[in-house]
Structure formats: C-alpha cells, structure tokens
Amino acid sequence: METLKKIFFTTLLIGLNYVSFAQTDALLQKAFSASYSAESKYNYTEAINQITIVFSEQSYEMNLRLGWLYYLAKNYSSSIKHYEKASSLKPYAIEAKFGLIKPFAALESWDKVIKQYENILSIDPQNTSANYYLGYTFYNRKKYEAASKHFEKVINLYPFNYDNSIMLAWTYFRMGKNNDAKILFNKVLLMSPNDASALEGLASIK
Predict the structure, then answer these.
(1) Alpha carbon distance 102, 95 (integer Å)
(2) Which of 70, 77, 83 lies closest to 109 in space, CA to CA?
(3) In angstroms, rounded to a whole number, what is the distance separating the alpha carbons of residues 54 and 200?
(4) How many CB atoms lie within 10 A of CB 97?
(5) Quick check: 187 and 166 in contact, CB under 8 A?
(6) Distance of alpha carbon 97 from alpha carbon 116, whole angstroms
(7) What percent of the chain has pLDDT over 70?
(8) Is residue 142 part of a domain?
(9) Using CA atoms in the order 146, 149, 153, 159, what is the torsion angle rounded to 10 degrees?
(10) For 57-177, where are the alpha helices, taking DSSP H only?
(11) C-beta of residue 53 within 8 angstroms of C-beta of residue 39
C-alpha cells in the first residue's frame, strides 16, 4: 500500500510539473510574440516591457533579446549589460558577441569592437564576417598589415567575393604591394565590370 501511495504521489508531482512547464512555455512564447509585434511597429519601449514582465536573469534568450531591443532604443549601456550577460551564460556562443559589437560601434568604442571580433575568432577562426569586419576596422585605423591578414583569410575561402577582394586590393596598395593590388583590382573588374573603385585603384598604380 505504501508503495502504491509513493507511486501515486510521484506520478502526481510529475504531472503537475509538466503542466507548470507547459504554462511557463506558453507564457514565454506569448511574451516574445508580443515583443516582436511591438518591435515591428518601432515601439521599442513596449517590446522591452513584454520581455521584462517575464524576465529571468539566467535566461540566455531573454538577455539576448533585451540586448537587441535596448540597442534599437539607443540605450547602449543597457544593451551592453544584457549582451554581456548573455555572453557569460553561453561563453562559446558567438551571436551575443556579434550583438555586443553593435552598441560598442555606436559608442565608437573601437578597441572594444576589435576585442569582440578577436573573441569571436578565438572560438571560430574561419568566421568570414568577423575576419572581414575586423580587417575593415584595422584598415580604417590605417593598420594595413593587420587588415591584410584578415582579408587574406576570407579571400582564401571566397576568392571571387567582391567586397573582400576590393578591400584587400586597396590594403595591398596602401602597403605598397602594387603588383598584388593590380592583380586584385583586375579580378574585381571580372566581378563588377567598370567598377569605379577598381578603376581608380588601377589608375593610382604607377
């Protein structure tokens, strides 16, 4: 008899937990749905409120969502806070690190932008977006040697990509590698005939 009672109460608890989890899932799905709806209407305050109502500090998804919404609302300090929390909850997830780049870039905190790209590449060394944009950041800072290393990684993966090829061509030109630059400028003209940037580059090479 005691055994049957234990089985009954165990089954009852499992059933109650299942109902509780199902209710929680439904509540969260409703909150996210309402948040997306508000975002689509550019009502970022309401989109944020829908998540904060059900917010759990240990939820990766909620922190990631709030990081994005606070960025859209131009509340960059709160955006950074939530993206950093999401990143700490899942250290090997690169999407939160890409998210962090947005408010740092808006604040023109370029050293922190570079750090995030480096963090991403420490996890995913071949990530094309991180390599390209880190190269682009270095190029804008006139650190051409560093920029070329990242553009070269991308061009090895995507030899016929316009954006990376034109940037690497200009990087080589700035480094004084005119022959390499000329080869790439001409390759760009295969991708984009009469491309103004490529033609300008070729005209600049003496």
Answers:
(1) 11
(2) 77
(3) 55
(4) 25
(5) no
(6) 6
(7) 89
(8) yes
(9) 110
(10) 60-72, 76-89, 95-106, 110-123, 128-140, 144-157, 162-174
(11) no
Would residue 190 count as lying in a domain? yes
| Helices first, then strands: H and E counts in the chain | 11, 0
Domain extent, residue 191, equals 125-206
Residue-level pLDDT at 8? 41
User: Which tens digit of pLDDT belongs to each residue from 44-76?
Assistant: 999 999 999 999 999 999 999 999 999 999 999
CA Rg, the chain, in Å?
25
**Count of domains observed in the chain:** 1
Residue type, 17: N
- Look-up of token digits 């682009």: 136
pTM > 0.70:
yes
Domain CATH code at residue 206: 1.25.40.10
For 139, residues 6+ apart whose C-beta sits below 8 A from its C-beta are 147, 167, 170, 171, 174
CA 40 to chain centroid, in Å, comes to 20
Token readout for 155 is 């061009």
Task: Name the CA dihedral angle for 11, 17, 19, 21, rounded to a multiple of 10 degrees.
Answer: -150
Contacts of 175 (CB under 8 A, 6+ apart): 144, 145, 148
Whether the CB-CB separation of 144 and 175 falls below 8 Å is answered with: yes
